[in-house]
Structure formats: C-alpha cells, structure tokens
Amino acid sequence: MKQSELFTKTSKTAPKDEPSLNAQLLIRAGFIDKLMAGVYTLLPLGFKVYKKIEQIIREEMNAVGGQEVYMPTLQPKERWQATKRWDDLDVLFKFTSYYTKNEYVLGPTHEEVVAPLVKRFASSYKDLPIAVYHIQNKFRDEKRAKSGMLRTREFMMKDLYSFHTSQEDLDEYYEKVKSAYVKLFKRIGIGDTTYLTYASGGTFAKYSHEFQTLTENGEDIIHVCDKCRVAVNKEIIEDLKSQCPECGSQDLKSKKAVEVGNIFKLGTKYSEPFNLTYTDEKGGTKPVVMGCYGIGLQRLMGTIVEALSDDRGIIWPENIAPFKVHLISLKQNKETDKIYQDLESAGIEVLYDDRADIAAGAKFADSDLMGCPYRVVVSEKTLKEKSVELKRRDSEKVELVKIDKLVKLING
To answer: Do 327 and 305 fall into the same domain?
Structure first.
C-alpha cells in the first residue's frame, strides 16, 4: 500500500485524555481512533493487525476441535434471569424496546446463549463432547473505562465453550486448550513474556488459570516462578503460602502484568439453569459439564503495544504487523516503485512511503512510530551502490543490502 493513499495520518503529540501508553501510541500511529471513553474505531492499520490476531486465534481453536459460530449480541432478559445474573452482574447494559417493551441485554458474555443452543442438538452421551467458539463484540458497562485498549466498554472477544459428559473429560480437554493458548501467544509474538497464571477458581475448580503478559504498566501483580514458567496471581498468593503450585519453590518474583486470556472449569453452573442434560450409557440423565476459554482481542493488541514498544514507538511482532516492510523513498520514487513491485510480487506486505513533501527525518520518525518489522530506505546514495538501507525495528543495526538480494533476505 502506498502511504500517500492512506487516509489516516500520524501525530507527533499524544492525546491529552489518554494517559495509557498503548492508546497514546496506537492513536498517534494512526491505528485506532477514540470515539468516546472505552470505545475505539479500528482504522485500516489497526484492523489489519486485529485480523491477523484473529486468524491465529481461529487456527488454534480449530486445531483443538472448536467449531466456529456467531452468536447474537442482543439477548433476552429471561436468559439472564434464569442464571440469576440479571440483577447480580453489575456491568450489564440493559434497555427496553420502545416498541415491544421487552427488556434486553447487550451481551458481555455468552453462557446464557450457548448453553440453550447446545441443548437443541445434544441429548445423548454419543453427542458429546462438543466445543464451539465465536469471535464477537461484547459490551460491558464499566464504571470507569481505563488503560486505553485494556479496559473498554465495547470490544471483540473470542469465547470457546466446551461441553462434556464428565469432569474427567473436561479436565483432559482443558489441558489441550491450555497448550493451544501457549502456542497461540508464542505465534502472536509474546510467548516469552506470557505466563500461565494460577488464579481464583470461581465456580467448580480450586483454581482457574489466566495468561498474564509482563509489562511495566500492567494492571495486575503476579508472582513468577522462572523454573516452571508459571505464576500466581496476587489474589491467591497467600492461599498457596507464597510458593509455586507446581514445584513448591518460594523463590517467586513479583512482576506487573496484563491478563490476555483466561480459562475456567464452569462445571454445571450454566447447564443446570437451562436443563442441559444428556442420557448416559445406562439410560440415566446427567447434567452436561462445561468449560469456557476467553481472549479479548483489542486487549491483547493493547498489551502487545505496552510490552513491545520503545521511546520511538511500537515494535510489532512479525506475524501480526500490519506490513512486514516499511519502504521509504527519499526522492527516488521511480527506482523505488520497481522495488515495491518486486517485494509485493514476492508476497511481502509493504507500506510504501512515497510521499514527496515529507522530510527524511519525519519519514523515519513515522516508521519507528508505526513499528513495521523492517525498514528499507532508498536514496540517491544507496542507488549508487545498487543497494538499499535495511534496518530491523527491534535493532539499531543498519546495513547496506544489494537490491537483487533484498527479497531473499527478508523472506529468509
């Protein structure tokens, strides 16, 4: 894509009403726009990043047998009364239809939809297990939206729900999803700084698990065991006597982090209100056992920016960057056009800064702010050597690379 055709622009200054680093950088770099507190538009560059994150999540959920659906945002009051969450969940957006006078919820989560849905199709042990997921917008009436993309009122979330005949079957599937989460965070580019974290159990298990990414501006405190690559949330560290739940070590390090995913064993909490049962091998009736597994996509995007940035801007991991290469022409557009075409023909995604009225320093600053993995600079000086300047965003090293070697080097 040519940068001259991109309708969004970068900004040198951070918005005054955004104290969080992730929102400041994403807004300045032209990835998102703030509509109001806790609500953001994904602009073309931001949407490209979002779609890449979404696809990695989708591939990993498919790999553990998840079947993708799309459930409605608009949900009837009666479903939430059945689970007693109509009055108990304080983040519900509720409203009454002007015409029908019926009351509705804008879904913050989808247990009240998915349990009755599966009931329509699963009635025997032969129908189970089942795993369904969707990636859909959620609404939560947060008392105070804060931390930029980390705590918003409208956001996209991946929910996977699993349905089982027994606790043992749930436990086995739970471990598969746990491993899938480890893999997807590695693919996204934050595997080295993301820890499986023991947290409060919630419903039917002693502990639940979160995935927490280390960052200096994190909302949570976790206690990390580097030996086991696990952590403990501060809310239960005393329950575990300040020791690692896997190896017993008390050499835990306190770190700030952001939760980027969670997994829960729900048991029968949401199957019982909807009489979601199955007939077992002996003809008996038993409640279906459930698990749920969530990831907030914008929250994940914001966390990546918090964790992977410097004083110049964002440093996108290669698998989710909006473009792999930021190609910069310093008044050499004719020659750069050919390089641009060659890169794209090789299947390399390129943002081509062909703007004629922008100084070199401003182009370099924009490139650092936007954070594509590779910066390629074409100038009169480099062309004399039949070369370009190549620099990785996560390195200070600049090298002169022959033009005919560029595609192979970047693809290698």
So the answer is: no
**344, part of any domain:** yes
- Smallest CA-to-CA distance from 260 within 226, 228, 307, 201 is with 307
Residues 206 and 333 in one domain: no
CA dist list (Å): 184 to 16, 17, 180, 258: 34, 33, 6, 16
Buried b (16+ CB within 10 A) or exposed e, 219-231: bbbbbbbeeeebb
> How far is the C-alpha of 363 from the C-alpha of 358, rounded, in Å?
7
- What pLDDT sits at residue 412? 80
Statement to judge: residues 327 and 248 lie in one domain: no
> Does residue 79 share a domain with residue 151?
yes
Q: Are residues 141 and 192 in the same domain?
A: yes
What 3-state DSSP class applies to 18? coil
Quote the pLDDT of residue 204.
59
The amino acid present at 341, given as its one-letter code, is Q
Rounded-to-integer distance, Cα 72 and Cα 139, Å: 12
Full strand arrangement of the beta sheet holding 93-96: 74-76, 103-106, 93-96
Quote the pTM value: 0.96
Alpha helical stretches, state H, 64-134: 77-82, 111-119
Q: If residue 351 lies in a helix (H) or strand (E), which one and from where to where?
A: strand 350-353
Domain at 303, CATH number: 3.30.930.10
* Rounded-to-integer distance, Cα 113 and Cα 109, Å: 9
The reply to whether 3 falls in a domain is no
Residue 203's pLDDT is 59
Q: Where are the beta strands (DSSP E) in 88-193?
A: 93-96, 103-106, 130-139, 154-164
Comparing CA positions, the residue from 321, 370, 405 lying closest to residue 49 is 321
Count of domains observed in the chain: 2
d(CA 283, CA 274): 20
Question: Which residues make Cβ contacts (< 8 Å) with residue 87, sequence separation at least 6?
Answer: none
Q: Give the domain CATH number at 346.
A: 3.40.50.800
221-226 mean pLDDT: 96
Average pLDDT score over residue span 63-69: 98
Q: Is 371 domain-assigned? A: yes
